[in-house]
């Protein structure tokens, strides 16, 4: 797909970005640890991702949006900046109504447990964290995800900054390896899912 442009999201674009992620993650195995398949109504997942985007990447890093030549939203890549861990609980608490509406109180507690589990695998050194990336159904397989990733990775190379992510599927890991990510370790303790921690050091 040609004429893909990438630009940071504005506040009013977080809801449409969350809708893209809700569609993209509808069958994701890691998400299944928090929200079972039977409960994945699109509106509920949109609430979840809107809260996640606004509390983390939009507040501390960048939410990059990919669009086609007509301005239609194709994909989203959400990155938390190196200082995102500071004050994270307070930012999450501010979006509590969205999280409760999407998961309920019991699953919200489980979600925090999952985040704690995954946090243990993150590098101690400063890094940018790819919190979410998703592409609309009509644009998949057309290079949108790779364009989103390459745009921010070029900026990280210029800043000499590391990038970190968790990959939940072998197909995704192949793409990330092509972009310079290395597998660190499988993340254990998540029923029904086995994501892998991956790190990319600056190139050039």
Can you put this structure into words, describing what you see?
The protein is globular. The protein is an alpha+beta fold and 204 residues long. It has a 7-stranded mixed beta sheet, with helices on both faces. Strand 4, helix 6 and strand 5 form a beta-alpha-beta unit. Helix 1 packs across helix 2, helix 2 packs across helix 4 and helix 2 crosses helix 5.
The sequence of SSEs as H and E is EHHHEEHHEHEHEE
How would a crystallographer describe the biggest sheet? Answer: 7 strands, mixed
Mean pLDDT: 87
Share of helix, binned? 40-55%
Task: Report strand order across the widest sheet.
Answer: 1-2-3-4-5-7-6
How would the global form be characterised? globular
Distance between the termini: 27 Å
Which consecutive residue ranges, at least 5 long each, have pLDDT under 50? none
Question: Got a strand count?
Answer: 7
Rg value: 16 Å
The helix count comes to 7
Strand content: 15-25%
Structural class: alpha+beta
Name the features.
204 residues, alpha+beta, 7-stranded mixed sheet, 7 helices, 7 strands, 42% helix
